[in-house]
Amino acid sequence: YRVKISDDQMLASAIEGFASEPSVEFAEPNYIVTAMAMPNDPDLTRLWGIKNTGQADSSGKVGTAGMDIGVDALWEAGQTGSKDVVVAVIDTGVSWAHPDLKDNIYVNKGEIPNNNVDDDKNGFVDDVHGWNFAGDNKNSSDDHDHGTHCAGTIGAMGNNGVGVVGVNWNVSIMPIKFLTASGSGTTADAIESINYATKMKVHVMSNSWGGGGESQAMKQSIQAARDAGILFVAAAGNDSSNNDRTPTYPANYDVENVVSVAAMDNQGVLASFSNYGVTKVHVAAPGVRVLSTVKSGGYDTFSGTSMATPHVAGV
Ligand code: CA
C-alpha cells in the first residue's frame, strides 16, 4: 500500500506511526532512484565490448586491442540468441520503433492490441509491449535514451545491415518503464515493475538504476523473482565507492539471483567511476564509451555501470 503523508507531517514519525499499527508488517519511505549512466561521451564509437579489434574508429584514432566479452565465438557456432528468451529492461522505456530493435521487442501474444480489453486478464489493459509504471499506461516506449541504450546492448538486431548489434541477434526485450524522461523514478514503481516482470515469466531482468535506502518491500519482490527462477542483474553504481562498505541498492540485496555489475574499460581495467567490492560486486563488464541505440532511431556512446549491466543480462 502506498500512503501519501501531508506536508506538515514528519516522515520518520509517520513511518513510526504506521509501523505501530498491528495490521502493518513494516513501513518504509518511497525512495527516489535514478538511471546509472554517466554524461554523454561521443568520442569513441566502436563496439569494443562486443568485439575489441583495436582498429581505427571513425575519427581516425587507433585503439588498442584488448578485452571483450568473447561472444563472437558463440555467434560463429550459430548461437545468436532466441526470441523465446525474454529479457525485461526495467528503465526509462525502450524505443519500440528503432530500426535496430523493432523485431526484438517483446510481443504479448495474449493481448489483442488497442481493444481496451485486458485480454490475458493480468490486470493490465493492452500491455502488448510491457508497461509504463511511471505513467500507469501501456506506452513503454522511451522518452529519455537510457533504456533504449541498454536494450541495444542486450539485443540490437544482428545481421540486418543496420547500425549496431547486441549480445543477442535475436531476443525478446520487454520494455518496462518506471524512470521518467528525467531518468528518475521511485522505489514503489520499481517494485511494481519487478512484480510485473515476474508475473509475465521473463527469464532475466536488467536493472541499470539505483539509489535510496534498503527497502524490505523491494527485497521481497526480488526474492519472488528468485523463487520464479529469474536472474536479477543490477548496476553496481557510479560513485567510485566500495559496495562492501557503502551499500548501493538494488545491487546490494543479499538474494541469490542478484548479479551486481561493475564497469571496466577496453583494457579490462575497472572504470574510474565504477563501484567495486570483493563480496558485493560479482563481475565487471564493458561500461566505458559503449556505443548503442538511442530513441528516434539514433545511436550514441554512453559510459556507466548502466552500460555494463546489459552486457551481463545479454550474456
Ligand atoms: Ca493484459
Protein model, in words:
The two termini are 36 Å apart. Strands 3-4-2-6-8-9-10 form a 7-stranded parallel beta sheet, with helices on both faces. Strands 5-1-7 form a 3-stranded antiparallel beta sheet. 47% of the residues are buried. Mean pLDDT is 91; it is low at 39-45 and 55-62. By secondary structure, it is an alpha/beta fold. The radius of gyration is 19 Å and the shape is globular. It has 6 helices and 12 strands. Helices cover 19% and strands 19% of the residues. The site of calcium ion has 6 residues, from loops.
Q: Kindly state the mean pLDDT as a whole number?
A: 91
Task: State the separation between the terminal residues, measured CA to CA.
Answer: 36 Å
Shape: globular
By secondary-structure content and strand pairing, the structural class works out as alpha/beta
The helix tally amounts to 6
Identify the strand order in the major beta sheet: 3-4-2-6-8-9-10
Uncertain segments: 39-45, 55-62
Bound molecules: calcium ion
Number of strands: 12
Task: Determine the fraction of residues in helical runs and give it as a percent range.
Answer: 10-25%
Largest sheet: 7 strands, parallel
Q: How do the SSEs run, as a string of H and E? A: HEHEEHEEHEEHEEEEEH
- Estimate what percentage of residues fall within beta strands: 15-25%
Our Rg estimate from Cα atoms comes to: 19 Å
